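hiii so um. not sure if this is the right channel but i have a protein structure encoded as tokens and i wanna go backwards to a sequence. like what aa goes where. can anyone help
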């Protein structure tokens, strides 16, 4: 087949990266700022923050500390976990 000079412009990403990107567009500004204070998206930073939020949530629930914070963490994690890719 002859090369037509067209380039493949597709972006490759993992399922988890795609879910993080979709999460960015689904969350409210307030929830986004829980993950990144400046509201910016970065795959590595967001993936680490989700890990941190899951750990913080467990700690906060165990200590019954700042329930409004736990509700916000629950909302973020539920939104992420509800994203289904087929």
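sure thing!! here u go:
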């Amino acid at each position: 087949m002859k090369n037509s000079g067209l380039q493949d412009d597709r972006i490759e990403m993992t399922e988890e990266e795609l879910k993080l990107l979709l999460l960015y567009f689904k969350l409210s500004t307030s929830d986004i700022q829980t993950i990144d204070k400046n509201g910016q998206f970065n795959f590595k930073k967001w993936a680490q923050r989700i890990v941190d939020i899951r750990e913080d949530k467990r700690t906060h629930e165990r200590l019954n500390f700042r329930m409004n914070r736990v509700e916000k963490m629950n909302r973020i994690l539920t939104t992420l976990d509800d994203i289904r890719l087929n």
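oh and The chain has a mean pLDDT of 89.
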